[in-house]
Amino acid sequence: MTLPTIVLCTDVDDYVRICGFGSPFVPVLCRDSWARAMVTGWTGRLGLSTIDGSADCPGSADESDVGGRLWTNVADLQVVRLEDDASAKVMAQAFVRMRSAVSHSFPSWESAAKHQSEKESTTHTVVIGIDRRPTMRDLALFDDPVGFVVMDTIELASFLLAKTVVYSEMPEGRDLCFAPIQKGKVLGDAGGLTVLPGDSQELQQWRSVVEGDESVVSIVGHASEDYLRLSSNELVCGRRTVRPPEISGKRLPTCMVDGGCVLPGLRQTGPQDVPGRVFFANACLTLKVDGGVFDGGDSYTVSQRFLEANAAAFVASPMLKDGRIEENLVFHGLMGSGMSVGQATGEINRLLPHWGFEVGKALVLGDPSMTTGERLPEEEEQPFKKGLQFGVMDEAPEVPDDECCLDGPQSRAVVGFVRGGMIPHGRAALVDRAIDTEAAGPLRIVSRSQTPEAALVRVRQVLDEYDRLALLGVKVDEGRNLLTDLRKNFPNAVRRASVSRCGAPIDPALQRVLDRLREATKTVDPGIVAKLQRETVKSEYHFVEAYRDAYRMTGMHRLDDGCPNCGSDAVRYEFVSFGDDRAHRWMVSCVICGAVQDGVPGFVMSSIEGLETNSEDKTVQGEVVFQSEAPEEVSLAIGGAVTHGKRHGASVTVSQEQVVLSPGGHARVPVEVRVPQPADKHCMFLRMYCVSEGKIGFSGREFFI
Fold this sequence. Notes:
It is a single chain. By secondary structure, the protein is of the alpha/beta class. 26% of the residues lie in helices and 29% in strands. The chain has 16 helices and 39 strands. The strands form nine sheets. Strands 28-29-30-31-39-38-34-36 form an eight-stranded antiparallel sheet. α10 (325-336) packs antiparallel against α11 and α13 packs antiparallel against α14 (480-497). The termini are far apart. The model is unreliable at 292-296 (pLDDT under 50).
């Protein structure tokens, strides 16, 4: 490959003319010493040669006589500018000659945006503003794929274009991701992407990792308009500019206190030390084009510092960020697959709100048609590049993304999946470190058995249900410490659940919470049944009467079939708690039998059948019938006791103390009441209780012996 020659131009007409010379000449306008120093610093880092435009370049020759290969751009690119921006007109001519662009001028940014919206979605748009720069509000008018060349001098704009042309001729390099807020000590290496997590030694000594020809460099960390934290002890300073900074008002930049650095203990690094043809910042407030939040134009804006150094494109958001590495992995992977900067940014903006992270507001400063990798061939089954593995098997194409997860290796190396029309093969896995695909087996998108949100709702509902037992006059004794621990750690479970938002399986930490909840219910529910049994025997406990003071009636209706026990007139009441409008119960009361059923809506309905007396062995035999009204499987702890039976030594035995009901399912459980010391025709009352995850169901029936 013949390296380009950088032509340092001091005349605008010469600059525009040399833009049409083609390879190997790449002109840059350098009318001031700071611009020449900026450009030669970059060429020195890349080992490029420079010549003077007025003396060494064949400037007297016609463009047709130079004989060079014209610079070309395979993407469909248009340039838009305002009609009265003379500097932007010069740069538009340069883009036409060096990037095969089509140029348009408009009286306003609104009309330019309207024109862009009418073009094909594959058309990349460069918005150029130099003498008449757009504001952040103007930038929001345009749709992806779009890039903005918004500079205060034509020198900076020509430098950005030159870097774009040069980088388009260079072979693809490795990628690098600074991840100071990502936990971990182990260096990540995923298909040409090196990830430096926050606790790694390599992050503190990142210069030893840099090769110098990196294609895309990104960061997921903390930042502001005027600085960017590379690690816990180092930052990129927005004050290190190629020109003397200006402060036009009384307000200092946010990174300054009394003229000094707000973080004086950190090492300050200039952006020229950070490699990367494209820089992607997943950090707060790192892109501004109209002054940011302080006076002095964009003199201190850190995005401009990177464009003055190595980057030909800077991609970031002017908004607050969630700081999730999945965003970085997608960008690296899509750029590695051959997408343009504008296309990859468009995918990021589509995914962020879809994942529930934040509004998609990433913007491109630079040419959106720029690419850094070769387009992946469609015939490859499992291509793996820079954080993404393509060709994932999709076994749930009709299921929404948030109801799917990635089934495959259980390692934390794979953190989710994406689907998209522009993604090669239509879907890809997010990989933050190398995986052995042969050992791991195929990666498959499958329907979730349970979403993280549903898992959290279930945990909270169960804990709340146990808390509501106090409204029923029931105190949890056995296993209460288990519930207290789960309640205390619930906020941690919520935070861990967010790990699964990008389609990863349920996080192991959240799964452990679900497992602990399941084990806790195995202890607590039988304990509640035992508590109800003891209260029934000790004080002729009437469960329904115990909770009525905490509830008010909201409705009633008579049962068409009457009492399930005797067929007499019966009424079903609906109740809601005074203190918790989510706490509902229902009860069936008979004019003869009293309260015969009680429960929670959408839980389990039970009834007692039979109760045939055997006078010889002094027992009563019957069945408890359970009918599930729950949408999910229910595991019931079962037990019973006899009111007015203490004096007779009455006891209750069930054939099963645990019953599992499928949704809508039913079960019949034999029950035996033994009365060793019966009295003549003494009426007693069998009370049966079923408990699942703090929900209590009740059924009762009179019997004689």
